[in-house]
What we know:
Helices cover 28% and strands 21% of the residues. It has 460 residues and is α+β, with helices and mostly antiparallel strands. The chain has a domain at 175-439: Gcn5-related N-acetyltransferase (GNAT) (Aminopeptidase, 3-Layer(aba) Sandwich), CATH 3.40.630.30. A five-stranded antiparallel beta sheet has the order 9-10-11-12-14, with helices on both faces. Strand 1 (59-63) and strand 2 form a beta hairpin. Zinc ion binds at residues 209, 211-212, 214, 225, 227, 229.
Amino acid sequence: MAERSSSPEGGDEAPSLPSPLPAASSTASATPSTSSATSVSSNSAAVSSELPLPLIGSVVLVSWDDNSTHEATVVQSRERRPGQLEYYVHYLAYDRRMDEWVALSRIDLEDYKKQLEGDKPDGPKSSKRTWEPTRKVTRNMKRKTEASHMGRAGTGGSQASLDAVEREYEKNTKIKHITSVYFSKYRLSAWYLSPYPEEYGKLPHLYVCEWCFKYMAHRHALLTHTCTRRCPPGREIYRKHHISMYEIDGAQEKLYCQNLCLFAKLFLDRKTLYFDVGPFMFYVLTHVDDTGAHVVGYFSKEKESHENNNLACICTFPPYQQRGYGRFLIEFSYVLSRLEGRIGGPEKPLSDLGLIGYQSYWAWELLTALHKTDEPVTTAQLSARTGITQDDVVATLQWLDLIKYWRGHHTICYTTKQLHAATVMRKLRPPKLEVDTRCLRWCPPTAPPKEERAAGGDDA
Ligand SMILES: [Zn+2]
């Protein structure tokens, strides 16, 4: 049974976003029949009008089903059927997950014409909209991208090659062809591009086995796919009631981890690890029922992080969001760090959803620690008590307005009333799920990790 596709606002701790009108078969009425010299399009459609057609790169107004209009950059165009033009747009005020194909009828061509006329020397005062890329690829993302494409030995590339990687990344992340994915009993909307092989990546729909994450082009292939797997590979390291965690070595279960990453990338903007999974451990969270251990999300972690990162990439799959699983994964990463005797944190930069999840986790942990003490406390002490890095402690206390910068030092200052006010202001709530360390069967690796984990085997 196919359920409703996941909506863009379905993030674990996601901000509320309005939903655009689905790109439906509503184009015919918007395609006038007269020819025009101003009709320019990369795919010269049979459509034309006295109104100009938007050029790639132009900024136009796009209407949504609530009758609101939003500025968007035209990224690409296509002709789905003769005379039916569609445009792939990126909304300037929104994250890339909102990018979509829209029918021409949803673009305000009158407004676009005014823009163009505004460019003429004798035209009305210019109303031309300009587009500035709102998203920069950070050095860290470049490193990851490069590692994915070239292997980790190639990470020390020149500035020119980094620029090339940046351009390629921008180009590749512009258009997502896969709009929906059939996964278990769900039909999920794809939020972002994932680098599935070309013959799959260009399909509008993809079929993914929920047990092994093998991807298929046709429903029939999924129906006839015989999968004996009913839980993730690796070692079960945590079990409480219906919640179970598996630890998987990316070097030992390369295909599973690659397929897991490719699937997760459909819902992740920033992280670009797909192929070079060997240097990572994967911690896969499942919900266990009579039919098996269903993967609800995971996080990956570098086996050796020089920056003490305790998490590289985190994803809760859309059907399982807003149930506390994201927070559980974050807490789990800190529990492992504590057992390793380390203070760590997630790799930066965080994705938008990642930041929201972490902020609420950090805030709740710090407020809980502050409630427990009557003594003045420093950021270093809070860091030691919570396992959160000092930088993250300071940033979170600033977010909560509980810290002042005074004479070169950060000073935590608050009253009980202010603690309560911060909780209310940031809408913080007790966790729905918490890690019960009594149910954890895990020791930090002391020997070379591979050998130790190989001995663990698959005891699931
Ligand atoms: Zn399978």
